[in-house]
């Protein structure tokens, strides 16, 4: 039993349906849109009580039969009535209209529309230019096209009722609203432009042949382009007037047009009969119709009265008017045109008659260029090829360039109009009989008229007259009129009224067509044009039609407008043929046309002819028309097309879907055709809204609109009680799919529990061979909480079920942080860790993602893990070759690791090697095997669903992947997971680092990999089934192991660290992950996050160094600079201020140059340490100008010095690549010479002999020594913070301490030796004791031995001591460098010594001393990538990275270049900074205010008292001495 019947033969809605345009049918269908009141009346008493509940939807058979018997329709066209604008039931008033037969209703209207302006104005010209044969071919092709179209149209028109809209209705109901709307608009535009063409033809006849004097723009005296422009302007003016008049007539009422229709048709018939009569008359009495020729050129008749150069008047020879046209005077000795002189005047008969044999001359084409002469064929002329062209305007010229395709475009509008009968189907007595007979008879009649006209014109009229388009050589007469009998005026007036009538018909039909389209509601913005007057006249549509028609009028050229409307008509006819062919081939049940003489082959031939003619007429117009139709199609598809008309396109879709599904059932598809077919499992909240919409964003990015997508959700409960909830959930899914632009299907399953519902989705999703091969599900949130623990169990069951179903499993974690479809990554990487062999699936995933605009600019990197005994170099080459054949562009890197780092248990070594061998074997296939393998991304053991061969595997994995077992056995599974890493932008997934077990939020970091009892990180998931055995039976001693430890996940900590390190800047990381344990007792450990130990975080490794350097910066430097008695505040506080500002500024500057990735500056403890090193540079430079600058100057100095240092540091580290662990070059030398450059520019001559306030005190010296002690104690941390962890850092601490100790002992000794009274100087204690820390800086991590470090400490101390004693005073007096704190001694001289020592250490370093660690300490001397030596070294040192392959001498030269480059850059930068600091508005203190806190601080009262008491004591002591 069939319930809810919705279609029958002509099923197109009910009386309120807008789907049938103006036609209002009383629907016989049960589900028609009639009101409830009507339903109750209609079915009252016709249903038994037993079926009372189903009365609204399932009426009894008697009701159905009654509706069918009373089926009727109203008349269309001008008789239809306006619908109500609101949603109430339409008010209808039956209007009785006369019913017409075949002749009056179809035949004569079609004749009137087909025979028109082209026949009268252009047919003779077409024959003259194209020749009889060429023009006959054109006419035959065009008439054949319309005949085939009429056959197709007859079949469609007799398959039901065709309401108003005609061809639009037929196409839309056959091909769907999209095609119907697109072609309907094109047909409307074609009809509108046809009206413009008819009006232009009307004006052309009026102004050229009837009343030329009525021209507004006078053409007398104008020639060439000016005359053509005047004619076009006249056409525009009169065309606009006539269009306005016709629009008013149509607006007033169509009845006036209908009354004049027969009059206009009579004019057409009389004109054609007059032409035939004239042709017959020429056979026995040809008319006297002379044409004057000069040489072989046709002369314009308006320039002469006698066709001769001279005439005899008596005995005298007198020149004619023609003579005076070509000569400069009327006398016989005048100078004349050369061509006129050399050629004779002749006169030929323009219409020699049928029996003259002129047909032979007109058989072939005579195409002409624009402005070429109209010449008589076969007549010779004398022409000097070198002579200039003169008096060309005296001849008849070609107005356009002619060619065959142009003729086709101009002629085709003359065969249009075949739809006139189908448009009136509602006014016919028997439309299904009249339309085919009348239309085909009209086309046959008009085809005979056109074909006979071609032959008769060619047989009667001379070629020069035929090619004379406007009759300029025959006294301005209409060429076809000269042939007519009894008078040319019959043709002139007949063609004039014919064009007027055709124009009125076009302006009448086009608005109604637009109104029918608008009332269908498929194009929203056209709905306003569906309204009209009370009697249904389309007022607004008429206004739009007049405006569009005016565009054609403004073109003003009949020859230019004709190809335009040809395009639109041809497109309409093409789709009529397509609709008929489609319905015939599909054999739909309701396709039962009464017209039986059709065939799908004829329809396809007609469609092909239409398409061919479109491009023959004008290929660019054809493309424009197709683009317009395509845009309308996509617009309707996007925001309209809510109609369901049971069209053929739907039928094609169903047939194609059925065919495709059956083909899929024939066998598994080849792996080349594999693509992810995804089942997305969505979670719902209590309101049935989607919980994680970003899953669909990811689906869209992965699918890019291709392949199958099923979005599934589960509702808990029973179907009877929860079906409304399921519908609501389905609506939510569909709405989200639309917003995320996911093309697919939604499916909601109701079950007693969510686990079963999910299982049902996985099992029953899809249809036949079109099933999902991958499942996408989000990682469970908060699964560790007791109340959410069921999510964990459900998730594990999903994993198990996908494994059992041979499906891939994709598990994105932290899905909320993934990018939306609107985001764009401008750079970045997608990292693929190919840890286990999967046939290349992981390589396919980033390729698919990069097809989407979100990931398009990301690059692909592939990492694979190798063991120490693998040939990693060859593996990399093979992998690159593999990628090349796969046509994937990606960077490749092989990471070597120890077996213990990547294997959970030692007995798995065998499987590790088997997996490794499998990968290598796949990379070393034979040629034939490689050709087969490379064509597919997938592995042969992971084919798509093979329903007829269950032993084979399903399609391979997508983003999160889980391999599956074959046959009845389970195998170890792996799973590829999208990893969400740390990123400040929540929607940008990046690489992972170290997570917490609950890491869910975007900012947290996730694990990389784990293994369980049956798995390891390099699990051979694609091993042959025979080789895979139960892991519990593989090792007898397995049962004796601790099962809890066995089942827990293996952290693979080393591998995790490597992935974190390599992929820290990646946008996305893809890798295989394991499946669940076979034994369910291990489930509680399956979701255990693999986390790096918290104590291994960078904070715990580097914070101690950060804290030590903090003490040096803020306490050590601050106290050290407070040695002036009256400038203690300035020394400490300005150090505090400047340091705080400099660190923040350095974070930005260094971050931009060194830590800027993906549009962000990455911040960590190491960034802070680097920023504090930059701050130390500023503070050292500050020592050179201590006490002589304002705080504003210090801040400006820091603001300028930090960028200069950052640029220098970036250039040296990235291009020179030096060894400078302790910063002797980059920090000490740069800071020293920058400060000296500043103080050189800020030179104060008055301070050369000292300053009264430039003195210390007991307390200030003690404070300064305290700063020295802080610096001394923490200097080892300063030198070793950035060294390589391990032995290098250990050496750095030792060498720094030894150097400092040596310089301290030496400083005390030299201080007493060099003192006149043998006492220790506090200046030496405060500064020289630190020299050893600087001197060993460049060599601090090198193997220089403790003795060398001790010697360097002594040398640095000596240089510093002598510098303070002798060099500083010399520089102040002679070099104008006032080094206030002696930074040149402590940092400059010692930095130079350290740089020289570093160069020597580099030259002496060799493998005998360092062993393989030589290439860790001197990283740039390590072999380059690809060097076999690198592979050997990496076996010894796994973390060793490729270097630059430098020799010791090369590295030494780079060190030397860095020294000079740094010094040069710092001096230049310091000098420029000093110039800026001298600006007056930076508040530089005066000389007398230097070294005094009182200028900038509120100082206590005893400050000045102590200063006065000190001066008094000094004066007293001086007097005592005196």
Mean pLDDT: 76
How far from one another are the termini? 137 Å
Radius of gyration: 49 Å
Find the structural class using helix and strand composition. mainly alpha
Number of distinct beta strands: 17
Which strands sit side by side, in order, in the main sheet?
Answer: 8-7-6-9-10
- Which percent band covers the strand fraction? 5-15%
The helix content is 40-55%
Count of discrete alpha- or pi-helical segments spanning 4 or more residues: 51
Query: Biggest sheet, open or closed, and with what strands and sense?
Result: 5 strands, parallel
Based on Cα principal axes, name the global outline.
elongated
Low-confidence segments, given as residue ranges, are 1-97, 904-917, 922-1051, 1516-1522
Explain what you see.
The protein has 1522 residues and is mainly alpha-helical. The protein has 51 helices and 17 strands. It has a 5-stranded parallel sheet, with helices on both faces. Strand 6, helix 24 and strand 7 form a beta-alpha-beta unit. Helix 7 packs across helix 19 and helix 20 (558-586) runs antiparallel to helix 21. The longest helix is centred in the first third of the chain and has 35 residues, at 123-157. The chain starts with 35 loop residues before the first helix and ends with a helix. Mean pLDDT is 76; it is low at 1-97, 904-917, 922-1051 and 1516-1522.
């Amino acid at each position: 039993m069939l319930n809810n019947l919705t279609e029958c033969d002509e099923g197109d809605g009910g009386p309120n349906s807008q789907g049938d345009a103006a036609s209002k049918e009383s629907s016989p269908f049960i589900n028609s849109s009639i009101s409830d009141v009507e339903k109750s009346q209609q079915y009252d008493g016709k249903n038994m009580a037993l079926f009372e509940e189903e009365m609204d939807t399932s009426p009894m058979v008697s009701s159905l039969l009654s509706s069918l018997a009373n089926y009727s329709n109203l008349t269309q066209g001008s008789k239809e009535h306006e619908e109500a604008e609101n949603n109430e039931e339409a008010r209808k008033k039956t209007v009785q209209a006369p019913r017409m037969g075949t002749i009056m209703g179809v035949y004569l209207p079609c004749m009137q529309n087909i025979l028109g302006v082209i026949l009268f104005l252009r047919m003779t010209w077409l024959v003259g230019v194209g020749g009889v044969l060429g023009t006959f071919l054109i006419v035959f092709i065009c008439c054949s096209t319309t005949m085939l179209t009429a056959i197709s149209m007859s079949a469609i028109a007799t398959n039901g009722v065709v309401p108003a809209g005609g061809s639009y209705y037929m196409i839309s109901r056959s091909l769907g609203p999209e095609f119907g709307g697109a072609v309907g608009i094109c047909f409307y535009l074609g009809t509108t432009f046809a009206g413009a063409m008819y009006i232009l033809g009307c004006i052309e006849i009026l102004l050229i042949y009837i009343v030329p004097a009525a021209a507004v723009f006078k053409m007398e005296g104008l020639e060439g382009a000016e005359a053509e422009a005047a004619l076009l302007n006249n056409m525009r003016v009169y065309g606009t007037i006539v269009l306005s008049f016709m629009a008013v007539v149509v607006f007033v009422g169509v009845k006036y047009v209908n009354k004049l229709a027969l009059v206009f048709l009579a004019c057409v018939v009389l004109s054609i009969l007059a032409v035939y009569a004239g042709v017959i008359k020429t056979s026995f009495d040809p008319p006297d119709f002379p044409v004057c020729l000069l040489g072989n050129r046709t002369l314009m008749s308006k320039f002469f009265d006698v066709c001769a150069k001279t005439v005899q008047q008596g005995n005298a020879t007198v020149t004619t008017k023609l003579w005076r046209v070509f000569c400069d005077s009327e006398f016989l000795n005048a100078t004349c045109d050369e061509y006129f002189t050399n050629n004779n005047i002749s006169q030929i008969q323009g219409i020699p008659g049928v029996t003259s044999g002129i047909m032979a001359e007109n058989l072939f084409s005579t195409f002409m260029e624009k402005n070429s002469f109209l010449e008589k064929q076969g007549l010779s002329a004398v022409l000097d090829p070198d002579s200039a062209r003169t008096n060309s305007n005296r001849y008849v010229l070609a107005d356009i360039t002619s060619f065959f395709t142009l003729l086709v475009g101009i002629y085709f509008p003359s065969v249009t109009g075949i739809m006139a009968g189908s448009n009136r189907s509602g006014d016919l007595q028997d439309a299904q009989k009249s339309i085919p007979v009348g239309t085909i008879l009209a086309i046959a009649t008009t085809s005979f008229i056109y074909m006979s006209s071609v032959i008769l014109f060619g047989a009667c009229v001379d070629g020069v007259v035929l090619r004379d388009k406007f009759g300029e050589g025959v006294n301005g007469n209409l060429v076809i009129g000269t042939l007519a009998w009894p008078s040319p005026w019959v043709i002139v007036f007949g063609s004039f009224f014919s064009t007027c009538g055709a124009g009125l018909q076009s302006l009448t039909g086009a608005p109604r067509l637009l109104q029918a389209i608008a009332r269908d509601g498929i194009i929203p913005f056209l709905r306003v044009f569906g309204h009209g007057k009370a009697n249904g006249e389309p007022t607004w549509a008429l206004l739009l039609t007049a405006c569009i028609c005016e565009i054609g009028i403004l073109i003003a050229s009949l020859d230019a407008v004709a190809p335009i409307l040809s395009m639109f008509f041809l497109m309409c006819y093409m789709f009529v043929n397509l609709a008929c062919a489609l319905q015939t081939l599909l054999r739909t049940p309701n396709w039962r046309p009464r017209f039986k003489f059709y065939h799908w082959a004829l329809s396809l031939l007609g469609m092909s002819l239409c398409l061919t003619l479109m491009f023959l007429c004008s290929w660019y117009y054809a493309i424009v028309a197709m683009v317009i139709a395509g845009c309308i199609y996509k617009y309707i598809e996007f925001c309209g097309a809510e109609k369901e008309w049971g069209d053929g396109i739907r039928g094609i879709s169903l047939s194609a879907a059925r065919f495709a599904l059956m083909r899929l059932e024939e066998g598994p598809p080849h792996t080349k055709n594999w693509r992810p077919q995804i089942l997305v499992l969505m979670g719902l909240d209590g309101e049935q809204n989607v919980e994680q919409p970003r899953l669909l964003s990811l689906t869209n990015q992965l699918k890019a609109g291709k392949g199958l997508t099923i979005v599934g959700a589960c509702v808990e409960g029973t179907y009877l009680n929860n079906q409304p909830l399921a519908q609501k959930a389905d609506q939510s899914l569909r709405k989200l799919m639309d917003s995320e632009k996911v093309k697919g299907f939604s499916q909601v399953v109701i079950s007693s529990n969510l686990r079963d519902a999910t299982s049902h989705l996985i099992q029953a999703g899809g249809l036949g061979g079109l099933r999902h091969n991958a499942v996408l599900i989000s990682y469970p949130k908060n699964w560790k909480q007791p109340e959410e623990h069921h999510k964990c169990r459900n998730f594990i069951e999903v994993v198990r079920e996908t494994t059992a179903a041979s499906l891939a499993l994709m598990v994105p974690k932290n899905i909320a942080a993934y990018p939306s479809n609107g985001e764009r990554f401008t750079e970045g990487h997608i990292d693929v860790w190919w840890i286990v062999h999967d046939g290349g699936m992981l390589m396919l995933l980033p390729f698919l993602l990069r097809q989407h605009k979100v990931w398009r600019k990301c690059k692909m990197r592939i990492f694979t893990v190798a063991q120490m005994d693998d040939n990693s170099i060859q593996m990399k080459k093979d992998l690159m070759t593999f990628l090349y054949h796969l046509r994937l562009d990606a960077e490749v890197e092989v990471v070597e690791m120890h077996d213990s780092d990547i294997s959970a248990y030692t007995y798995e070594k065998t499987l590790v090697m088997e997996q490794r061998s499998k990968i290598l074997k796949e990379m070393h296939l034979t040629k034939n095997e490689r050709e087969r393998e490379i064509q597919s991304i997938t592995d042969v053991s992971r084919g798509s669903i093979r329903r007829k061969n269950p032993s084979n595997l399903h399609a391979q994995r997508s983003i999160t992947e889980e391999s599956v077992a074959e046959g009845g056995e389970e195998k170890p599974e792996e799973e590829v997971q999208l990893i969400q890493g740390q990123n400040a932008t929540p929607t940008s997934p990046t690489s992972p680092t170290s997570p917490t077990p609950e890491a869910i939020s975007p900012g947290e970091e996730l694990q990389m990999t784990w293994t369980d009892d049956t798995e390891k990180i390099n699990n051979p998931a694609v091993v042959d089934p025979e080789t895979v055995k139960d892991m519990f039976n593989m090792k007898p001693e397995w049962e004796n192991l601790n099962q809890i430890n066995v089942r827990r996940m293996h952290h693979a900590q080393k591998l995790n660290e490597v992935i974190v390190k390599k992929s820290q800047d990646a946008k996305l990381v893809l890798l295989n992950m394991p499946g669940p344990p076979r034994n369910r007792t291990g489930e509680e450990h399956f979701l255990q996050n693999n986390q790096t130990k918290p104590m291994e975080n960078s904070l715990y490794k580097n914070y101690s160094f950060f804290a030590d350097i903090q003490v040096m910066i803020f306490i050590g430097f601050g106290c050290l600079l407070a040695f002036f008695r009256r400038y203690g505040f300035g020394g400490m506080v300005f150090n505090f201020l400047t340091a705080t500002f400099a660190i923040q500024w350095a974070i930005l500057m260094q971050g931009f140059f060194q830590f800027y990735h993906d549009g962000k500056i990455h911040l960590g403890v190491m960034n802070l340490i680097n920023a504090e090193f930059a701050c130390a540079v500023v503070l050292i430079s500050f020592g050179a100008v201590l006490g002589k600058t304002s705080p504003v100057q210090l801040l400006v100095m820091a603001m300028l010095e930090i960028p200069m240092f950052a640029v220098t540091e970036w250039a040296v580290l990235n291009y020179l690549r030096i060894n400078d662990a302790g910063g002797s070059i980059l920090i000490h030398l740069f800071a020293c010479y920058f400060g000296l450059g500043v103080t050189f520019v800020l030179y104060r001559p008055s301070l050369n002999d000292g300053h009264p306030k430039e003195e210390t005190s007991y307390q200030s010296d003690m404070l300064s020594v305290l700063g020295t002690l802080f610096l001394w104690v923490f200097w080892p941390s300063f030198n070793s913070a950035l060294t390589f962890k391990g032995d290098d850092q250990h050496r750095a601490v030792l060498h720094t301490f030894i150097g400092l100790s040596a310089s301290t002992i030496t400083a005390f000794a030299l201080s007493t030796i060099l003192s006149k009274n043998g006492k220790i100087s506090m200046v030496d204690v405060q500064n020289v004791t630190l020299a050893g820390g600087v001197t060993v800086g460049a060599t601090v991590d090198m193997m220089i031995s403790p003795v060398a470090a001790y010697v360097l400490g002594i040398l640095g101390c000596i240089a510093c001591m002598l510098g303070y004693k002798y060099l500083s005073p010399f520089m102040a007096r002679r070099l104008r460098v006032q080094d206030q704190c002696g930074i040149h001694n402590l940092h400059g001289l010692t930095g130079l010594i350290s740089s020289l020592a570093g160069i020597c250490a580099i030259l002496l370093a060799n493998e005998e001393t360092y062993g393989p660690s030589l290439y860790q300490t001197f990283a740039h001397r390590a072999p380059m990538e690809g060097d076999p030596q690198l592979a050997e070294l990496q076996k010894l040192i796994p973390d060793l990275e490729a270097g630059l392959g430098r020799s010791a001498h090369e590295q030494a030269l780079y060190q030397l270049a860095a020294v000079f480059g740094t010094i040069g850059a710092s001096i230049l930068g310091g000098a420029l900074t000093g110039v800026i600091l001298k600006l007056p508005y930076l508040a530089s203190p005066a000389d007398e205010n230097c070294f005094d806190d009182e200028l900038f601080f509120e100082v206590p009262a005893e400050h000045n008292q102590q200063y006065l008491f000190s001066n008094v004591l000094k004066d007293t002591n001086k007097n005592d001495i005196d």
